[in-house]
Write a structure and sequence with these properties.
- The protein is α/β, with parallel strands linked by helices.
- It has a single domain, classed as Rossmann fold.
- It contains 8 helices and 10 strands.
- The protein has helices at 9-26, 41-52, 80-87, 109-122, 159-165, 184-188, 203-211, 239-243; strands spanning 2-5, 31-34, 62-65, 67-69, 99-100, 128-131, 153-156, 178-181, 192-197, 229-233.
- A 7-stranded parallel sheet has the order 1-10-9-6-2-3-5, with helices on one face.
- The protein is globular and about 45 Å long.
- It binds fructose -6-phosphate (F6R).
- Fructose -6-phosphate binds at residues 35-39, 66-67, 132-134, 138-141.
Length: 247
């Protein structure tokens, strides 16, 4: 595991974007696993800057996103498809027909999930997966539980996740209660993983994820078993790890 201690959010976003650019430089047809949420916005902004400087070419890149709310259309501003278009895809030369997000409009959960698993397989798996971290240790929408969910599945969102995500909606009631999410096996099969965590709100979860027991109670703790994990975090997110003298 490599931990990059960013000076601040901008610094770690720049460094993480450079890693992604290097991946695409080395493998122009890379499959990038992408995340939404507040955390990677800075990385996407930096990627757009790098693209405008001619330092990254997305023309052969494929992307697969971690998750999507069930019931939201791509046009819904709160959908993760909309988010990706807004922050990244609309501003770079990626072929949108090769950008994939689970189909939120598919009502048949089994079908939506099976199709997504097949899709990930058909593109040859993920070369580099970007992850944010939930305050409760979730990755994707893999919430704390008794078992690690393996592949793409339909998730009933926990109260804490609904509350955390309510800030993006007009009210808590508008937050969908279900989502389609890649499972732990999909994520762990990625060749490289880039976990980004910022802010004090993530400090305990980051400590538990990287140094706590490996348990489905903290889904991100499974990442300790990945042999190509790079963590990009700011001083606030690293505060508990530092307090414990682990860094
Ligand atoms: C988003 C995702 C989630 C977020 C996590 C952190 O695609 O899968 O696991 O990464 O909820 O969210 P933020 O970055 O908003 O704190």
């Amino acid at each position: 595991m490599m931990i990059y201690q960013g000076k601040d959010y901008k610094d770690l976003s720049e460094k993480a974007a450079e890693i992604i650019a290097a991946e695409v430089f080395m493998k122009p047809d890379a499959v990038l696993g992408l995340a939404t949420g507040s955390t990677p916005i800075g990385v996407y902004e930096e990627l757009v800057k790098l693209y405008n400087m001619g330092r990254i070419d997305f023309s052969k890149v494929t992307s697969v996103n971690l998750d999507e709310y069930k019931g939201l259309s791509p046009e819904n501003e709160q959908s993760y498809r909309y988010f990706m278009n807004h922050y990244l895809f609309d501003h770079v030369n990626i072929d949108k027909s090769r950008t994939y997000v689970p189909n939120g409009l598919e009502e048949d959960s089994q079908k939506a999930c099976d199709e997504y698993n097949q899709l990930i397989e058909s593109v040859g798996g993920i070369d580099l997966q970007v992850l944010g971290l939930g305050g409760n240790g979730h990755i994707g929408f893999n919430e704390p539980g008794d078992v690690f969910d393996k592949v793409t599945h339909c998730v009933k969102l926990t109260e804490s996740t609904i509350e955390a995500n309510a800030r993006f909606f007009n009210s808590k009631e508008e937050v969908p209660t279900e989502a389609y999410s890649m499972g732990i096996q999909n994520i762990m099969s990625a060749k490289k993983i880039l976990l980004i965590a910022t802010g004090e709100r993530k400090a305990e979860a980051l400590y538990q994820a990287l140094y706590g027991p490996i348990s489905p109670k903290v889904p991100a703790s499974i990442l300790q078993l990945h042999n190509q994990l790079a963590v990009f975090a700011d001083p606030e997110a690293l505060s508990v790890i530092k307090e414990k003298g682990l860094l």
